[in-house]
Every structure is written in structure tokens, then in C-alpha cells.
# Entry
Amino acid sequence: MTHILNADLHCHSIVSDGTLTPEELAQRAKANGVELWALTDHDEIGGQERAIAAAREAGLRYVTGVEISVTFAGTTVHIVGLGFDHTHPTLVAGLRQTRGGREERARDMGKELARVGIPGAFEGAMKYVDNPELISRTHFARYIVEAGFCPDTNAVFRKYLAEGKPGFVPHRWATLRDTVAWITAAGGVAVIAHPGRYGLTANEEYALFTEFKAHGGQGVEVVTGAHGQADYLKYAGFCQEFGLLASRGSDFHSPTESRTDLGRLPDLPGSVTPVWERLGDRIH
Ligand code: AMP
Ligand code: MN
Ligand code: MN
Ligand code: MN
# Structure
């Protein structure tokens, strides 16, 4: 596979907090010129069969994907898994377990939001949830916009749902070690998602990359919707320093909410080794 490839290895469907079905995403990816696609729903691989079938139908190459929530250094980081066996029992059980706390967290979020003047947010968010095991902050954000408290979902996060805001309920997600182990056990490649978004100190970030690598992690997203030019250069440098493969993904959630559409990203810098060069035998 060539270095320059329109690969989009990060996006979300209605199986987590996206607004399109796996079939709609496959068609949109194809229409936008994507050549290799992965659907990476949060903590959930229930959409993989549909994505595989839809990609085949659209004539699109596909690798399995997931984005796992991890608690690290007191904050949440995301690890993307690519090219795994989506029926592997270790991965299936780990994800089921990590999804388990979401409903209680969401009920607590509803109570906290009621305290600051937004009643009925749990029930309101549920109207936007397709998969009852995957209630996310994004579903709350959509309801809070609908109810007229904020003009758009970004404003909701800034005012109510980001860490430290009144509707944010701290939660303990999976460990970095377990997450990388589940992905690797299922034959996949673990990738640090959008590292530029976490606001980690230089020391914390160094610890994240060092521990991730020690656990068997193999890649990092260099080009993603959340990164700018400075991040591309910085994390291309991290690829060299830590011996990691580079990934590329829009993190597309919705035609009306996402800034970066499927497949509409700059190419990876020439200095890195693309993750797809190691996924050759796992492409559907
Ligand atoms: P959760 O897994 O329930 O904590 O929700 C995390 C999701 O919320 C992320 O995957 C994003 O889709 C969304 N999100 C987080 N922060 C923001 C933000 N500042 N603006 C818009 N969406 C956000
Ligand atoms: Mn999301
Ligand atoms: Mn993420
Ligand atoms: Mn994502």
C-alpha cells in the first residue's frame, strides 16, 4: 500500500455518538474519496459487521475499529484499536465491562444538570441514544441544544459538560494496560487517539507515550480533525522518538456538528510510517 492514501481510520456511527448509520458512513466515505476506512465507535464494536458489509457493498477497503475510553493521569484519554478480530472474547468482554458504568453516570449527570437549571436531561438525552449501552455526553449536548440552553453542542461542552463544569461527572474508565492488552489479544494495533486534545503537561504526555509503548501500543494519530499543523509536526516527531506508526482519521460524528468531514484531511507527513503499511493482511 502506498504512503499517500486517503485513509480515514476514525469516525462514529449511531452505535455510539455519531448521527449516521454505518451504511450512511460507508456511502459518505466512498463519495468523499476515502480508500481505506474504519468505523471506531466509543467502547463498542456492535457496528462492525454492518460496517464490513456496507464497505463491501460500496467497494471500499475496511479495517475493524474501536475507540476505547481510558483513565490516565486523572483524565480521560482515548485509544483507537484497528485491524482486530471483532469476535475475540477478551476484547468483547473488556468492552462490555467498560460500557457498564455509562447508564449510572448518565443518571448522575441528569441530577447535576437539574441542579443548575436543566431538568429532564437524562430523559432528553435518551431520545438521541440508539444503543442503550452507549449513552454519552454528546447525547446530552444534543438535548441541551434542543431545549434552547445553548446555540450548539460545542457551547454545551464549554458551559456544562467539559471536565470541571457542573454537568461533568467524573468516571473511572479502563486502564491503559488493559485497553492495549484487549486490542493486542484480538490481533489489532493500538493507537493513541488525538493526543493534542488532552491538555497534558509535557511530563504527563511523555509518561503516556512511554507507558503506552511499554504495554505494546504501536501507533499514534498524527493527522486528525482535532490537530493543526503544529500538532502534525510534533506528533510526527513523537513517531520517530517512540518508534510508532502514524494514523490519520477525521473523528467525524455528524454532518452538522463535525468540522472535518470523512476523508477531508491533509496527508501524513513524509517522515512517518503509516499504520496501514502494517494492516495489509487485516483489510476486508
Ligand atoms: P463521553 O465518552 O460520554 O465522555 O463523551 C465523549 C465525547 O464527547 C467525545 O467523543 C466527543 O464526541 C464529545 N466531546 C468531548 N468534548 C467535546 C467538546 N469540547 N466539544 C464537542 N464535543 C465534545
Ligand atoms: Mn464522540
Ligand atoms: Mn476521542
Ligand atoms: Mn472519536
Summary: The two ends are 14 Å apart (CA to CA).
